[in-house]
Amino acid sequence: MIKPLSLFILLFSLALNLQAANLKPFTANTATPALKLNDLHGKTHDLQDYKGKVVLVQFWATYCGPCRKEMPSMNKMIKKMGDTPFTILAVDMGETEAEVKQFVKEVKPEFSILMDESGKSISDWQVFAAPSNFIIDPAGKIRYTLFGGVEWDSDELINKLKALASN
Amino acid sequence: MNLKTLISILAFAIITTLTSTNMALAKEVKTIEAGDTEIDIRIFPAPGNVLLLGFPCDEGKSIAEEKTARSLAEDGIEVWMPDMLSGFMLPKVRSSLSGISTEALTAIINEATKTGKKVYLIASGPDTELVLRGASNWETNHKNTKLSGAVLMFPRLFKAAPVPGKAPEYQDVVGKTQLPLLLLEGERTPNRWGINSLSHELHKSGSPVKSKLIPNVRGYFFKRQDANRSEDVVTSQMAGLIKVSLFYLQENNTHD
C-alpha cells in the first residue's frame, strides 16, 4: 500500500515531469548555426553579438495560430525577466514585410522581429514546426528546444531561464 | 395542371435526378485478403485508364477526401481508398503506421495493377511512408512492370526531430524506390524549406522527383478546423490539384 507521503512525492514528481516537458534539453553535440538577419527597421542582428545573454530564438509566422496566441506572454516574459541578461530574437519565416508589419501593428511585440524572406536560417536551423523555439545560453550554446506554443511568462519557465543566465 | 400534380411531377423529377446522380457516383466496397488480414477498399469506379490508389488511413472519415474521390471518378480517374487502420484494428495515431504490414500494402497495389490501368499512389503527411514502403516492396517483386508514379502531399518522413545545424535523417524507406514522385508542400509551412533536401534523398534510388508549392496554404490545410479562405478554395479544388499532379508525373519525370 502506498503511504500518503510516498503518494505525494510520486504525484509531485509526475507534476514536475509534466511541466518540464515544455522545455526539452538539447543534447545534440552540434555547433549553434549562425543567425544574422535584419529586423523590421533594417537593423542587423547577429546571434554572436548576444553572447553573455540568454537568448530565445523563435521561428514563427503570422499564419501560425499558436505563435499569434503566445506573443503577448512573450511581452510579459521580458518584464518578468527584469535585469536578467536576456533577449528575444523572433525570426519570421519567409513572409513579406507588409504581412509582418500588419501583424506587429495588431499584436505589438516588444522584442526584435527579424525577417528571413529567403528561408536560409530556417534551413540552417532545420525548422520543421511553427513555432520552433531554441534557448541559447550565455556561451552561445543551444540548451533547450520547444516546439509549439506555450505561455512564456509562467514562473517555471522564467525560473529556468534565470537559472541558465546565472550559471 | 393543378398544384398537387405539379408538386408530384417536381418530386418525381427530383427523386429521379438524385437516384441517377447517386448511381453515377456510386462507390463499391471491395474486400481483399492481404496477408493475415482483410482490407476493405472503397472504390470510386471510372471508365478511364488511370487508377489512383490512396492511403488516407483516416478510417474513411474525411469528407474532403471522399468528395475529391467522387470528383476524380466523374472525370474518369478511378479511385481506390483502402481502410488500412481498420484492417489491422489500429487507432488513428501516427505510431499505427508501423503496424501496417508491407505485405498488405503490396497486396493492395498488386490488386490495383490487375485492372490493367495506370496505377498512381497518393498519401499525405506521415502516411506517405506507406506509399514508399508499398511501392519499394512491389518493385522488388515486379521487375518487369512499373507503377506510374506517386503524389506525396506534405510528406513528413523524418526519422526524428531534425537537429539545428545537422542534415535531417529520414525514415529508412526514403531513397528505396524508383517510382516517379511529385511532392506537394504548402507555401505556409516551415517544411517548404526542407523539400529540396527530401527530394534529393528520394532521388538517390533513381526516382525522378518533382516538387511544387501550393500558394497561400499551410500543411494539412484540407484537414484543418481553422482553414482560411485560400485553404477552403484549394480544398474545394483538390481534384483539379491532383489531376495537375498526375499530369506532371506523366510529362515531367526529370529531377529538378
Strand order of the largest sheet of chain A: 1-8-7-4-5-6-2-3
* Contiguous helical run count of chain B: 8
The chain pair forming the largest interface, with residue counts per chain, is:
A-B, 26 and 19 residues
Supply the helix-strand structural class of chain B: alpha/beta
CATH fold-level topology of chain A: Glutaredoxin
SSE layout and pairings?
The complex is a heterodimer of chains A (167) and B (256).
Chain A: H1 4-20, E1 24-25, E2 36-39, E3 44-46, E4 54-60, H2 65-81, E5 86-93, H3 97-107, E6 112-116, H4 120-124, E7 132-136, E8 142-147, H5 155-166
Parallel strand pairs in A: 4-5, 5-6
Antiparallel strand pairs in A: 1-8, 2-3, 2-6, 4-7, 7-8
Chain B: H1 3-25, E1 28-34, E2 37-44, E3 50-54, H2 63-74, E4 77-82, H3 84-87, H4 102-113, E5 118-124, H5 128-141, E6 149-153, E7 181-186, H6 195-203, E8 209-214, H7 229-236, H8 238-251
Parallel strand pairs in B: 3-4, 3-5, 5-6, 6-7, 7-8
Antiparallel strand pairs in B: 1-2, 2-4
Helix pairs in contact in B: 2-8, 4-5
Structure, described:
The complex is a heterodimer of chains A (167) and B (256). Chain A has 167 residues and is an alpha+beta fold. Chain A has helices spanning 4-20, 65-81, 97-107, 120-124, 155-166, and strands spanning 24-25, 36-39, 44-46, 54-60, 86-93, 112-116, 132-136, 142-147. An eight-stranded mixed beta sheet of chain A has the order 1-8-7-4-5-6-2-3. The radius of gyration of chain A is 17 Å and the shape is globular. Residues 5-21 of chain A have low confidence and may be disordered. Chain B has eight helices and eight strands. At the A-B interface, helix 4 and strand 8 of A face loops of B.
